[in-house]
Amino acid sequence: MRSLLCPAMLAFALAGCPPGGTKAGAAGDAAVDAKTAIAPAGTAEAGADGGADDAVLPPSSSPELTARAKHLLEAIAHDDPGLATDIVFPRDAYLLAKDAADPGKQWDTKVITAFTRQIHAMHRHTKGIERAQFVTFDLGEPVVQAVPKKRDLKRSLWRVRHSRLTYTIDGKAQHIDLAEMLSWRGAWYVTRIRGTVK
């Protein structure tokens, strides 16, 4: 009887334990894996919004920023603002960063609507824009850290004005002056794009 009882008890004890640990341990590992997957690689967690540390100054140039600047030129060339939504300051970020009674409505009217209108205007008023060739994107100067201020930002972000996208049409250099860009989660985004081409 004793020889049968011990294996039976052992089998019962192991039945609730998956290989590698307990069910609680497995659940804990899954939670850690999910958290790791959500947090951007190499960035610090920043509380409830779960992003990177906004105190860190984003690089003034990177392949990622160049790619998004190219998208902006493509959007103007093809008269399609949807091609460059990745360079617009994100709506969710605006909700967290902007000090306004209704930041969502403000983003809808003052950021994305103005961006869309200016893309269309630049396409209409730039002769030969369909043949535009990207040359370079240069972040403006100086870059300043905007401090929280009523009716502006409710958290410190990096701000820069007059960034320049340079391109050519039939070999002639032209540029677009971006009125304002803000940093968010280690990247630069357009909040206002000037509608004039110089």
Describe this structure in words.
This protein is an alpha+beta fold. It has two domains: 2-38, no CATH class; 54-192, Nuclear Transport Factor 2, Chain: A. 38% of the residues lie in helices and 21% in strands. It is built from five helices and five strands; from the N terminus they run H-H-H-H-H-E-E-E-E-E. It has helices at 2-15, 23-38, 63-77, 91-97, 103-125, and strands at residues 133-138, 143-146, 157-169, 172-184, 187-192. Strands 1, 2, 3, 4 and 5 form a five-stranded antiparallel sheet that branches. A hairpin with a 2-residue loop joins strand 4 and strand 5. Helix 4 crosses helix 5 (103-125). The longest helix has 23 residues, at 103-125. The chain is globular, with a radius of gyration of 25 Å. The relative contact order is 0.14. Residues 1-48 have low confidence and may be disordered.
What is the topology?
Elements: H1 2-15, H2 23-38, H3 63-77, H4 91-97, H5 103-125, E1 133-138, E2 143-146, E3 157-169, E4 172-184, E5 187-192
Antiparallel strand pairs: 1-3, 2-3, 3-4, 4-5
Helix pairs in contact: 4-5
